[in-house]
């Protein structure tokens, strides 16, 4: 049993599960996720162990708070957090190093995640619709005074203390890559300053609304993984939707579908649409830093490797010469 396996088992003692309960690791990324199956009762759940030095307990409770509001207001259907016997939604357990790990247990939702194969136009139209609904809700919702979520902007994503790792320390960054991506960084920063962060274009959003974070169960669509929710540019949600596949030749079609879904519920200006390629490059640079800082333990980052930086350089050339998404 690993240290985090032990954390998961210890956390479950706070809930009413039978002794015949299995805990299975399902994903290692920013957080570590387990599937919990109680063979005695037939109940299942998703247990999330938060990574160290990322979100505070107050920030995690704020995430759950917005999820509650979205569900109660009928905007989207995120999973419900399960409470302990004492009514708590966050359990804190020390790992084998004595470090406090925050744990949340969610109901296990049925459904499947759409794949990146086949015709994705309908799926991206759905993503756009969901994004618009959540943006409208977030712009009007009055959070409690204790609400505490981060802001994703140039400084927090690409600055000296980038939350997801600095792209300059990404894999495969040599002299030529650094020079090209520095040009990209400068141009992206300049255009984002020009675009601004007014209330009509910057606010509370999911910030990781991609196909991997949808569960489709017949006519029901659940949005999951609000771990990155916070304040950012609304159009950043499209950039997030094409994470890791920004070089796919179908991106223009997906963007058209996403915008079709979005504008059916929330208006956009020409400037809003024109900033999308810049936000895609902003996200891509962020992900270069993420791969570099997470590849030793996150499977997805490890698989991307140095090739992710190489493709990023190709995208940077296309963007800087004005041909990306043209």
From TrEMBL:
The keyword Transferase applies. Coiled coil: none annotated. Keywords: Transferase. Pfam families: APH. Residues 29-268 form the Aminoglycoside phosphotransferase domain. GO terms for biological process: threonine biosynthetic process. Belongs to the pseudomonas-type ThrB family. This is Aminoglycoside phosphotransferase.
């Amino acid at each position: 049993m690993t240290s985090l396996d032990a954390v998961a088992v210890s956390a479950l003692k706070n809930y009413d599960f039978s002794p015949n309960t299995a805990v299975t690791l399902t994903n290692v990324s920013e957080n570590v996720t387990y599937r919990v199956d109680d063979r005695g009762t037939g109940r299942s759940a998703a247990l999330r162990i938060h990574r160290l030095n990322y979100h505070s307990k107050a920030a995690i409770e704020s995430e759950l708070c917005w999820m509650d509001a979205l569900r109660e207001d009928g905007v989207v259907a995120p999973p419900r957090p399960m409470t302990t016997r004492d009514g708590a939604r966050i359990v804190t357990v020390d790992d084998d190093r004595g470090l406090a790990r925050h744990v949340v247990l969610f109901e296990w939702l049925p459904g499947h995640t759409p794949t990146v194969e086949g015709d994705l136009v309908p799926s991206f139209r759905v993503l756009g619709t969901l994004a618009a609904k959540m943006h409208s809700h977030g712009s009007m919702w009055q959070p409690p005074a204790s609400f505490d979520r981060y802001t994703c902007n140039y400084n927090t994503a690409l600055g000296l203390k980038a939350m997801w790792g600095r792209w300059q320390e990404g894999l495969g960054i040599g002299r030529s890559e650094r020079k090209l991506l520095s040009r990209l960084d400068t141009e992206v920063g300049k255009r984002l300053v020009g675009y601004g962060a007014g209330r009509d274009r910057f606010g509370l959003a999911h910030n990781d609304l991609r196909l991997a974070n949808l569960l489709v169960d017949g006519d029901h669509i659940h949005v999951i993984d609000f771990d990155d929710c916070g304040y950012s540019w609304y159009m950043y949600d499209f950039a997030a939707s094409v994470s890791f596949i920004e070089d796919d030749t179908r991106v223009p079609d997906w963007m058209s579908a996403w915008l079709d879904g979005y504008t059916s519920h929330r208006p956009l200006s020409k400037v809003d649409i024109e900033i999308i390629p810049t936000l895609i490059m902003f996200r891509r640079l962020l992900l270069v830093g993420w791969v570099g800082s997470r590849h030793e333990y996150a499977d997805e980052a490890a698989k991307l490797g140095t090739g992710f930086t190489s493709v990023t350089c190709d995208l940077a050339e296309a963007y800087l010469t004005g041909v990306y998404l043209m």
